Write the structure tokens for this entry.
Amino acid sequence: MTGIVAAVSASPVHRTRKAPQAFIRIVAGLGVDGDAHAGVTVKHRYDAKKDPTRANLRQVHLIQAELHDELQQKGLAVAAGEMGENVTTRGLDLLTLPTGTQLKLGARAIVELTGLREPCVLLNRIQSGLMAATLERDASGNLVRKAGVMSIVVASGDVWPGDTIEVVLPPAPHRALEPV
């Protein structure tokens, strides 16, 4: 299973949107160099208020570009980085990968999936209705969160748009991603 990096984004301050970058440097155990969410302990403002000493399982946020395509078909114009993601992918169904999946981004960088992003109302600041558009129900009535996946950095490296993404699944049995 392979995909490509469609775009990379970062922001030194906490805000929903992240600015597109020529490349990002991801640092083992921390996240994206210079990004507000990088760190050993949780940096997400809501989670940090609850317990600032908790491990940061949200060091790098990934969204598949196919979600942007889907949102555009619904009349919502969303570009790479605008939903807070650091890495926009193409060609991989991130949401179906199990917890612990490792993604090799480019030549050296490796991230490990920790869970799903929980969409929040801040998405509606980008565009009215965006949060609802990232949530749906499956045939069994279960909530499906489509706003991307979160990861920790296992190996440092630079990540560029156009880099290949190699998927390494964890040993079975696999656990589905849950919100983190």
In short: The CA atoms of residues 28 and 154 lie 5 Å apart. The chain has a mean pLDDT of 96.
